Amino acid sequence: MRGEDRVSVNVKFLSLLGRLCGEREVVLELERGATLGMLLAVLAERYPLGDYLHADSSSRSLLQAVINGKPSHATGGPETVLEDGDQIVLYLTVGGG
């Protein structure tokens, strides 16, 4: 049983991220009060994702996050505090001309 000071979040990796991670979904336990940016830092250490997983809210970032069905830019971006049971979907945007 996890303690009161931890939260469990479910992270789904779509498309290229799933291939890079070698799995499509992972459940992680984080300290209560952890933010989306902190989650991305943990993922960047755990998986060989290069520069994709930076907690960067700039328009140059290719990483997009959806938290419980809402785009992360609508929930506070990297500063979004994660709650127990949150569902996070990560994917890369594609640019071109």
Protein architecture, described:
The protein has 97 residues and is α+β, with helices and mostly antiparallel strands. 18% of the residues lie in helices and 29% in strands. It has helices at residues 16-21, 36-46, and strands at residues 6-13, 25-31, 63-67, 70-71, 87-92. A five-stranded mixed β-sheet has the order 2-1-5-3-4. Strand 3 (63-67) and strand 4 form a beta hairpin. The chain is globular and about 45 Å long.
Nearest-integer average pLDDT:
86
- SSE arrangement, N to C: EHEHEEE
| Class of secondary structure makeup | alpha+beta
What's the count of strands?
5
Q: Number of helical runs?
A: 2
- Unreliable stretches (pLDDT < 50, length at least 5) are none
Portion in beta strands: 25-35%
* Head-to-tail CA distance between termini: 50 Å
The shape, in one word, is: globular
Radius of gyration: 13 Å
Helix coverage percent: 10-25%
Strand order of the largest sheet: 2-1-5-3-4
Strand count, sense and closure of the main sheet?
A: 5 strands, mixed
What's this entry about, in short?
This protein has 97 residues and is of the alpha+beta class.
